[in-house]
Structures are given as structure tokens and as C-alpha cells.
Design a protein that fits this description.
Layout lengths: L1 E2 L6 E2 L12 H12 L21
Antiparallel strand pairs: 1-2
Length: about 55
């Protein structure tokens, strides 16, 4: 059993198409939070430790 990171409801991991979420609804809520910029990085990246596409 794992807890959904959105609503904290416990669901079985196996057979759950929306894992780590409990449902499509919670999956879409999380996606919306990313799209609206509600999730932030905990620290700013400096130029010396940031990577760009050109680095690869």
C-alpha cells in the first residue's frame, strides 16, 4: 500500500494505472500544479552546477 501524494488515500501499487496517484483525478491535480508553477526548486542553481543541453 502507498499513499497518494495528493489526497493521501492508501492504494495498492500493483494494478494501479495512475501510480503513484490513487486516481486520474489526483494525477491531473498534480499536473495542474506543475503547469501553474506551484512547485518550486528549493534552491537556485548556480552557473557552475547547472547543466544545459549543450553539455551532452
Amino acid at each position: 500500500m502507498v499513499k497518494c501524494p495528493v489526497c493521501y488515500q492508501e492504494k495498492k501499487w500493483q494494478g494501479n494505472a495512475y501510480r503513484p496517484f490513487c486516481s486520474e483525478r489526483c494525477s491531473l491535480i498534480d499536473l495542474g500544479k506543475w503547469a501553474e508553477g506551484e512547485y518550486k526548486m528549493s534552491e537556485n542553481l548556480s552557473e557552475e552546477n547547472s547543466e544545459t543541453v549543450d553539455d551532452y
